[in-house]
Amino acid sequence: MTIRRFTDADRQDIRDAAEERRVLDELYRKDWARTISSEETDERIAYHWEIMGTLQIDPYRRS
Question: Could you tell me if residue 60 is inside a domain?
Fold first, then answer.
């Protein structure tokens, strides 16, 4: 049996991947992905910018 020892960089990569997955799941829960018509495009872009502003991403954690 092989014993895998994770480095600090490995652990950080795992935490980053978990955060990215959590943010993506939150985004999908807030708005189901669907095809929109050309008339809705401008409205939907503005709406998605608002959603992106509410995601709980800590920009100072990954420096």
Answer: no
CB 22 within 8 A of CB 56: no
Q: Which domain holds residue 39?
A: 20-54
32-61 tens-digit pLDDT = 666 767 777 888 788 878 877 777 777 677
Decide if 36 is inside a domain: yes
CA angle 20, 54, 11 (to 5 degrees): 20
Q: pLDDT digit string (tens) for 2-30?
A: 778 889 999 999 999 999 999 988 888 87
